[in-house]
Design a protein that fits this description.
The chain is built from 17 helices and 8 strands. It is α/β, with parallel strands linked by helices and 435 residues long. The protein has 2 domains: 2-208, MetI-like fold (Orthogonal Bundle), CATH 1.10.3720.10; 232-434, P-loop containing nucleotide triphosphate hydrolases (Rossmann fold, 3-Layer(aba) Sandwich), CATH 3.40.50.300. The strands form 2 sheets. The chain has a 6-stranded mixed β-sheet, with helices on both faces. A two-stranded antiparallel ribbon has the order 1-2. The N and C termini lie far apart (83 Å).
Length: 435
C-alpha cells in the first residue's frame, strides 16, 4: 500500500505541477499584455476570463475527451488515457485562474514604476511585470496549482484512473471511498492537505523574499560624472488633451545644459503633465533622443532592496553605496524600500535618477515631504548635476526653491504659460499664498 501511495502522489505532483507550469507559460505573458494595453474588447475579455474561474472540471474533461477520442480533432495523437492528456485538461482548467489573477496583480503595478523602468532602459514587458507584481503572480500560481492538485472530474474522465499509470490522489480517494475503505481515503486526503500546505509555505517564502538582494561592498567608489554635456530641450506649441479635456495649450519652453528652469503653478495647472510630455511618457507629447530621467512627485521604488534600487540605474554596488551616503541612506542598503518613510523614498528616487547619469533631469515636487536639512542636501546634489552640464526642468509649488535653484521661472495656469502680472502669478512668485 505504501508503494501505491507513493506512486499516486508522484503522479499527482507530476500532472498538476506540469499543468501549472504550462498555465504560467501561457497565462503570464497574456496577463502582461492585457495589463499594459488598452483595446476595445478589454472589459469584455476580463469578464470572460473571470467567468471561467468557475469552469466545472467535468466540462473540461468532456471537451478534452471529445477532442482526444478517435473521432476527435486530435484523436491521432493517442493522448486519451495518458498523463499527457491529463496535463492538457488541467492546463485548460487552471489557465483562466493564472491569467486572470496575474492580470489583476500586474494592473496594480503603478504607472510610475513602469515608466521608471522604461527610462532606465527596460521595457515594461513580462519580466518587469513579474518582478514588480511577484506577490500576486505567486498567489495566482498557487491558486492554479491548488485547483489542479485537488480536482477529480477532468483527470478521471481523461485518465481513466488506470492503476500504475494514470491514477492520482483524488481519483484514488474516489476509488477507496467507493470500496468502503474510508481510512485509506482519509489518509490520501491528508496527503493532499500536506502537499497544499507545503506549496503554500514555498509560495509565502517566495512572496516575502524581495528580489535583487545585494551585498554592500567594503570599499565605496565615487562615480565619474558626465561633464561638458551639450544638450538642448526646445518645446514648441505643445498641446495635450485627455478625453477631450485640454490639459496643455500652446506651451513653449527652452532650456539647455547648465540651466534649471522652474515651473510654478497651482495644483491642477498642468505642471506634472508638462514634465511627463517633456519626458516622452505621453504618446502625443514631446519626444527627444536625449537621455532623460524624471523623478515623480510620488516617490517610486522598484523591486529589490535599497541598494539594488540604485543599482537599477546600471552602477556597481560600490558606486551605489556612494550615492546612498550622499543622502544618508547607507545604513539602509539591505532594507526593503517599502519600509522607508516617504521622505527617505524621495531621497532614494533622486539618487537613483542621478546615478543613471542623465542629460536631462525632470523634477516633480522632488522635496515636497522633506525637512529643511534634507531639502538642502538634495538641492545641492541637483545643483552639482547642473554645474556638470546637466539640464533641469523643475516643477514646484515653492517660489523660494525656484529662486534658489532656477535660472528663470515660468508660471503655468490652466495649462498655459502666463505672464507675471496676474494676482495669482504674483502670489506664486512672492510666496504670499503660503501665509
Amino acid at each position: 500500500m505504501s508503494e501505491a501511495i507513493w506512486e499516486v502522489t508522484v503522479t499527482s505532483l507530476m500532472v498538476s505541477g506540469s499543468a501549472t507550469i504550462l498555465a504560467m507559460l501561457i497565462g503570464l505573458p497574456l496577463a502582461s499584455i492585457c495589463a499594459r494595453r488598452n483595446f476595445a474588447a478589454k472589459p469584455m475579455l476580463k469578464v470572460g476570463v473571470r467567468t471561467l474561474y468557475g469552469l466545472p472540471p467535468v466540462v473540461v474533461g468532456v471537451a478534452v475527451y471529445l477532442a482526444l477520442s478517435r473521432q476527435g480533432m486530435f484523436g491521432g495523437l493517442g493522448l486519451l488515457f495518458t498523463l499527457e492528456g491529463m496535463i492538457i485538461a488541467q492546463t485548460l482548467l487552471i489557465l483562466p485562474l493564472v491569467w486572470g489573477l496575474s492580470w489583476s496583480a500586474m494592473e496594480n503595478v503603478s504607472r510610475e514604476v513602469l515608466e521608471t523602468h522604461r527610462m532606465l532602459g527596460r521595457k515594461d514587458g513580462v519580466i518587469t511585470h513579474l518582478r514588480e507584481a511577484r506577490g500576486g503572480v505567486v498567489n495566482a500560481s498557487l491558486v492554479g496549482f491548488g485547483r489542479a492538485i485537488a480536482e477529480v472530474g477532468a483527470v478521471m474522465i481523461i485518465g481513466g484512473n488506470i492503476a500504475g499509470k494514470t491514477r492520482v490522489l483524488t481519483t484514488s480517494i474516489v476509488l477507496e471511498t467507493s470500496q468502503g475503505d474510508l481510512d485509506s481515503a482519509l489518509s490520501l486526503g491528508g496527503i493532499l492537505l500536506l502537499i497544499a500546505l507545503f506549496a503554500s509555505g514555498i509560495a509565502l517564502l517566495i512572496e516575502n523574499k524581495r528580489g535583487g538582494k545585494s551585498s554592500p561592498p567594503e570599499v565605496w567608489g565615487e562615480p565619474v560624472f558626465k561633464t561638458g554635456m551639450e544638450v538642448e530641450v526646445d518645446v514648441v506649441d505643445l498641446n495635450w488633451a485627455v478625453d477631450g479635456n485640454q490639459i496643455l495649450s500652446d506651451v513653449s519652453l527652452k532650456f539647455k545644459s547648465g540651466e534649471c528652469v522652474a515651473v510654478l503653478g497651482a495644483s491642477g495647472s498642468g505642471k506634472s503633465s508638462l514634465l511627463r510630455n517633456v519626458a516622452g511618457l505621453e504618446r502625443d507629447g514631446y519626444v527627444s533622443n536625449l537621455d532623460v530621467m524624471m523623478v515623480h512627485q510620488r516617490a517610486v521604488t522598484l523591486y529589490g532592496d535599497v541598494l539594488t534600487n540604485v543599482m537599477h540605474s546600471g552602477v556597481e554596488s560600490s558606486e551605489g553605496m556612494w550615492w546612498l551616503k550622499q543622502v544618508g541612506l547607507e545604513n539602509f542598503a539591505n532594507r526593503d524600500p517599502s519600509t522607508l518613510s516617504g521622505g527617505e523614498r524621495q531621497r532614494l528616487a533622486l539618487v537613483r535618477a542621478l546615478s543613471s547619469k542623465p542629460e536631462v533631469l525632470l523634477l516633480d515636487e522632488f522635496t515636497a515631504n522633506l525637512d529643511g536639512p534634507n531639502v538642502s542636501i538634495l538641492e545641492k546634489l541637483v545643483m552639482n548635476f547642473i554645474s556638470n552640464g546637466g539640464a533641469v526642468l523643475l516643477a514646484t509649488h515653492n517660489p523660494f526653491q525656484s529662486q534658489r535653484m532656477a535660472n528663470r521661472t515660468l508660471i503655468l495656469e490652466d495649462g498655459n504659460i502666463v505672464t507675471r502680472d496676474s494676482l495669482q502669478s504674483q502670489a506664486l512668485l512672492d510666496g504670499s499664498w503660503l501665509g
